[in-house]
Automatic annotation (TrEMBL):
Source organism (scientific name): Pichia sorbitophila (strain ATCC MYA-4447 / BCRC 22081 / CBS 7064 / NBRC 10061 / NRRL Y-12695)
Protein name: Piso0_001132 protein
Family: Belongs to the GTP-binding elongation factor family. LepA subfamily. Belongs to the TRAFAC class translation factor GTPase superfamily. Classic translation factor GTPase family. LepA subfamily.
Topology with respect to the bilayer: Peripheral membrane protein
BP GO annotations: positive regulation of translation; translation
Catalytic activity: GTP + H2O = GDP + phosphate + H(+)
Gene: Piso0_001132
GO CC term, one of those recorded: mitochondrial inner membrane
Function noted in UniProt: Promotes mitochondrial protein synthesis. May act as a fidelity factor of the translation reaction, by catalyzing a one-codon backward translocation of tRNAs on improperly translocated ribosomes. Binds to mitochondrial ribosomes in a GTP-dependent manner.
Amino acid sequence: IPISRYRNFSIVAHVDHGKSTLSDRLLELTGVIEAGDSNKQVLDRLDVERERGITVKAQTCSMIYCDPETKEDYLLHLVDTPGHVDFRAEVSRSYASCGGALLLVDATQGVQAQTVANFFLAYTLGLKLIPVINKIDLEAADIDMARDQVEHTFELPSDECIPVSAKKGLNVEKILPAIIKDIPAPSGDPTKKLKALIVDSWHDPYVGVVMLIYIVDGYMKKGMKILSAHTDKRYEVKEVGVMYPDKLAMNAVRAGQIVYVIPGMKNPREAMIGDTFFEYGQHEGLEPLPGFEEPKPMVFVGAFPAESRDFDDMNDVMENLALNDRSVSLQKETSTALGLGWRLGFLGSLHASVFQERLENEYGAKIILTAPTVPYKIINRDGSEKIITNPDEFPSNDRYHDISSIMEPYVEAIMTIPNEYLGSVMSLCENNRGIQKDLEYLTTGQVLLKYELPLAHLVDDFFGKIKGATKGYATLDYEDAGYKKSEIVKMELCVNGVAQDALTQIMHKSQVMSRGKQSVAKFKEFLRFQLFEVAIQAKVNNKVIARETIKAKRKDVTQRLHAADISRRKKLLERQKEGKKQMKSTGKVHISNDAFQAFLKK
Ligand code: GTP
């Protein structure tokens, strides 16, 4: 099949609008899988994904479609993309390998935030979009409303919409002819020198690292030596082939195809999404493909084993998990309160919770996680900059004379909400220090709202809050909006004057009072039953802003005495007082790991 008859496409959709179901139907129509196969939703592979109903890793599948008019075969590559915004870099690389995309809209729900955000990404990358309206079998389906939205929100002609039911298979056969007619063929040249883009990679327990690669120019075959443009490392191709739907080895693959490659790579972190491969020895003067970005962690947490003796075992587990996910950053960390542990960086809070779940599911590991923090940037007077990812390392006011400004990361949040909740969502955004950017009434009783929000508020379950404010009807997506100067301070939690490093938090000045009060009150709950008086204080720049006291628990040392034995009673009480005084001056409050764990668990 010549490159002019290749079509690479993906599906742009909001969660649950039916991307996996539609993918299955297309694979059935082209005979890749059998209809009614128990192997349902082949494209969603990982367990965690299936459990949460989200696609985390991109998977692809090739198919051959015979044009009924010309009787010519076409080679189609469907590139699945993660739906969630945490994985935006992976989404853009997937789109970069495609000439077009199906824009899938649920006829009962209409356009949602994730569709909007992914649409803009696909549109900016120049993809040809084919609107598909799904779930028309449902009674609540409103096809005209969906058409209208497609026309108004995306400025796509509404008569190009294909109404389908992916579940029932209704009309789905109309999609394939539209793909070959409307989506352009890849523009690469098989006779040029090899240039290939890493779209995705994963670890296969049997064959090691597997990469999903878009061959832009040239060809690739078994035994070829390839060179990474960004790491400068060399590999020998052990196997190449297409996903059909599992790995199907081929002798050679060429320009325009999206294929899997087994490079015999030891360290999975060397496979970087967006990296370019050349043929070794044929790479002189070639420029890498554009769009490479180092993964940028946005949320950091400290992680500590609940039992400190577990550190070594867990270290292997952590390193292994981090090795397999190049977007996780991992560093060792020591806390006075919790001992040896790690600082982990994630792309977003979903990414963090998926990682944590894997840790617990696959390894049964018990870990204590500190409150998440975002990367703050300190700009010093001498012009140097520092990114702070551990709250304990945030400077206190005694260092302020060195600092010219403190910067806080922001995102632009895109939300779709039913009209009647506009007021409550706007006040939620304002309460979270949001800055309104855009407000647009959609034709369907929904509002498209854009706000700039501090990332710190976004990762503090903003999505949960906005769902709460809209009976679950709001949808949210976001993109990086850079750093802004901000009044950020560090709040320490002290127990009898000793700051508990694992509980230090960084926050905006406006939050210290409420968060301070809340923290001391909550920590008090978990510290009951001390034999002497304990003061729990929240301090900002060495100033106490909130305090709770736990009264000493008094043991009744006199209970076994006869009531008349006054002098003996006095003596005992004296001695108890003495003992307490001593404990107070020298005694260290022992805080059990359970108390930290209980406190840190939201
Ligand atoms: P993510 O993988 O979470 O992004 O979801 P998805 O977009 O892949 O959606 P999926 O295909 O898993 O479908 C979500 C739900 O909608 C499932 O319960 C499907 O059975 C259902 N569904 C999909 N297409 C149709 C349809 O045409 N009609 C009806 N009635 N239900 C559908």
